[in-house]
Amino acid sequence: MQFPCVTPHNLDVRQLGINPNHWYVVARSSQVQTKPLGVTLWNHPIVLYRDSGGEVNALEDRCPHRQVKLSHGRVVGEFLECSYHGWQLKSNGACAAVPYLEDNQKLPNCKIRRYAVKEQDGFIWLFPGNIEAENFTSLKPMGVPEWDNLNYIATVAVIDCQAHYSFLIENLMDMYHGHLHQDYQAWTSAVLENLSADANRVDAHYQAQSYYKIDKIWSITQLFFPALRRLHPEPLHVSYIYPHWVSTLGQDFKIYCLFCPVSEKATRAYLVHFTSLNAFWRLHKLPIWFRRFVKNSLFGSAQRLLDGLVRQDVQMIEQEQQAYLENPHRRIYELNRALPSVQQLIRNQAASE
Ligand code: FES
Ligand SMILES: [Fe+2]
To answer: Which of 118, 182, 189, 253 has the fewest Cβ atoms nearer than 10 Å?
Structure first.
């Protein structure tokens, strides 16, 4: 795969590519069934499908015969069949069968690209980089360890924004924008207290006022009824662990943002919100089946909140992208010292591919 080649100096961060040598999230597990699914990761169309053995596979979304989309085809046993002339492909991208092959003809020796892909913690993780590289086996998906943990209630929201991924990560690392979400009462009065950065991550520690406290089992109703919320101080940690983001607000909330940069002007991401039940030790003594029932029944309990926050953020991010396109050289005035570190990480990663 050819990714844009960059040098580290003075490059406009809004034009930078991604470092392909990481695991990106391209879909939720539940989206990938036997019907093929087309996704795009940094301008590269990819088809995902689940074969008859339940394994998820990822191929270039391009039939080697006449270049039409394989995601319009279907799965037949372990093969992916193109909708046009019915050629079938193996999971390694080689041709497996051509329905009208004559006795004196050989299968064409064509092969499309296969991607390394893993199904983990409710998501499909894809590695678009060099799988021949020495360190490939040591690079693991970031993962979402709370996904199967019975003490965490999950909610997932999809972010689709017409903007470069740098605008989204800057939004997520800049907790001073609680102002935008006042009507959802998530957090307020953030103060950046500590910032650290290295070649792979930026960690920003804020002190903030949180509206939520999950100390009684019914406190979860605060996710639906803002009137039940009371302000109190909580640490708010946000980390850019390239290419993804993770955040904790006090003991009760953890949020991930799993990135799938689509192009220079489009980004998809999966926001995964967890409410912790760790404080309820009595609950932990109940049978596993019951705890699983509680976890599953409460799945999505923060949906309205999360969708509302996403809507507000996407609107701002898309306005930033538009303003940038109209005048890429206009100066912006940034006061949050976390953001230069975020941009530096993007530059270093884009340059190190
Ligand atoms: S274009 Fe796919 S089989 Fe012909
Ligand atoms: Fe936000």
So the answer is: 182
Q: Report the pLDDT value the prediction gives residue 291, as an integer from 0 to 100.
A: 87
Distance (angstroms) between ligand 2 centre and the Cα of 308 equals 9
The pTM assigned to this predicted structure is 0.92
Task: Give tens-digit pLDDT for 185-212.
Answer: 678 889 999 999 999 999 999 999 887 7
Burial 277-297 (b: 16+ CB within 10 A, else e): beebeeeeeeeeeebeebbee
Q: What is the pLDDT of residues 140-180, one digit of tens each?
A: 999 999 999 999 999 999 999 999 999 999 999 999 998 89
Q: Which regions of the chain does DSSP assign to beta strands (E)?
A: 24-28, 37-41, 44-50, 56-60, 74-76, 79-81, 88-89, 95-97, 116-120, 123-127, 152-161, 187-197, 201-210, 232-241, 244-249, 253-263, 266-276
Amino acid at 147: W
Q: Which residue puts its alpha carbon closest to atom 1 of ligand 1? A: 66
Q: Ligand 2 centroid vs 138 CA: distance in angstroms?
A: 33
Q: How far is the CA of 156 from the centre of ligand 2 (A)?
A: 15
Residue from 61, 63, 88 whose mutation best tests the ligand 1 pocket (most atoms within 8 A of CB)? 63
Q: Using the atom order of ligand 1, give the atom closest to the CA of residue 70.
A: 2
HSE-CB at 83 with a 13 A cutoff on CA atoms is 11
| Residue among 89, 78, 130 at smallest CA distance from 112 | 89
pLDDT at 184: 77
